[in-house]
Structure formats: C-alpha cells, structure tokens
Predict the 3D structure of the following.
Amino acid sequence: MENILDIKNLRKEFGGFTLDNISFALPRGYIMGFIGPNGSGKTTTLKLIMNLMRADAGTIEVFGQDHIRFEREIKQRIGFVYDEPVYYENLSIRRMTGLISPFYAKWDQSLYEDYLRRFELNADQKIKTLSKGMRTKYALALALSHGAELLIMDEPTAGLDPVFRRELLDILLDVMQREENSILFSTHITSDLDRVADYITFIDRGKIVLSQDKDSLYEQYVLVKGGPGDLTDALRRELIGVTVSAHGFEGLASHPVQGEGLLLDKPSLEDIMFFHTRGDRHGA
Ligand code: ADP
Ligand code: MG
C-alpha cells in the first residue's frame, strides 16, 4: 500500500515538553483520526508536517517526497485547516480568498463558490465577524477548492455544536468519494471518529501509544467489568487502567482476559483513550 504520509522518529523538544520518537504512516485513500488529550502534541506534530516548525530529528515524507525539500510542490496538494486564526481579520471573505487563491495552480473558482453556497457563507462578510463554525467552513472551502489530495485538519470540531459536527463528517465522507483522497484529522472528541476513521493514531504526553486500523483496535481491546471482589492482583496487572468504585471496577485490557463473573465488553475509542491516560495505571 502506498503511504501518502510517512513520519519516522520525529522529535521536537520544548522547555517542558518533548515530542518523542513519533512514527506513523497513513496509506493513500483513508481517513486517520489523530487523537490525544489536550497538550499531548497533536498540533505540534501537524505543524511539523506543514514545516511551520523545525524538528530536532526525524523524517517526514508526504506523497513519497521529503516535506522540506519539496515543500512548495507538496503544499499545492495539501489542504490544511488550522486550529487558530490565520486570516486577516479586517478583510472580507472575498478579498482574503483573492490573496490566497493565486498561490494554487489548480485553484477551481467555481468549485469554491459552490462550497461557499453549500456552507451558507457570504463572501462580503468580514473575517472578524465569523463564528468558529463559519471559520472552519471557510477554511474547508479553501482547502477543498485547490484539488488537495491530502486534507489535514487540526481539531476542526472543537467548540462546535453537534449539528455542525455531524455536517462536517458528512462533508468529509463526501470528499472521500474521490478515492485517491486522504484525511488526517486531529481531535480530542473521539466520538467524531467512530463513524468515519479507518485508522487511529493515539498520542499521549508526546509519545505514540498506538497507531493501527480501527477495526483491529476494536478487536484487540476489551473492556472488563466486575464486582468489588473480582479485582484480584493478578487481574490488575493485566489491565492498562482501571477505575474502582463501591459497586465494582471497570478496566481496559489489550488482550482477552478470563475470570469468574467478569463482564467483557467492546470499548469505545473514548474508553481506550481514557484508560490509557486517566484510569489508575494498574491500580497504582
Ligand atoms: P495538542 O495540540 O495535542 O493539544 P500541542 O502540540 O499544542 O498539543 O502542545 C503540546 C505541548 O507542547 C504543550 O505542553 C504545549 O504547551 C507545548 N508547546 C507547543 N508549542 C510550543 C512552543 N512554540 N513553545 C513551547 N512549548 C510549546
Ligand atoms: Mg492542538
């Protein structure tokens, strides 16, 4: 399978934080959810891909090419939706787009105008008057109108209502109708991904916890529940994380576990993230 994005041993050190030895790959034609709690290193990783920041070590290939040597060519083929305001606040949508579109060789003005209509954006409106949802839609309209094969979005659903989130996911599925397209989508709201993601990469405290296809993830992990007396020391050692209450316990294992009276269930992505990051590790 051809990788549209291939990250190897990426490292970036800040004062109190290290993005450490990050490696993962996204095959062409798929959607990858990039999940992790706030502050885990998602934005930093995406900025490194976009060469908005220099890495201390490691390599990044996009479309099989080094992301720095071929930065100009690569950026023609990427649509990036930022998590922070990057437009001139005092300009209208029309004027802002007029500054951005000449940069793209494959800019499609009529497709762009279709997206504005579909997203109910008024080209005469000033950027500073756009709500968070409207900004995301505007960024998406720009990203989708220059023939991008790889869409990278940093928390596009954060702070947005469920109606917009549902709408966005439908747009993404629509984008994926063109089978050569791929999407890397960071979020800390994992329920967004249950419907759309093919692959999940999970980062915590600057380290990759897992990166694999979603179906194998659901097959591999088990949610284990039981009464107060069922949590033996041996069982605790098998659990990645566990929460205990007066009524019993709930924990996550990365392999099948056996025991009298235990209830085994399929975890959600949220369960997997929660027990890796928050649940008491091994009950410690
Ligand atoms: P996420 O997007 O997953 O919430 P970030 O990548 O934004 O996480 O941040 C990861 C960590 O790196 C945080 O602790 C943040 O404070 C730190 N960080 C991010 N950018 C910088 C920077 N330019 N200088 C110093 N620290 C930074
Ligand atoms: Mg972020």
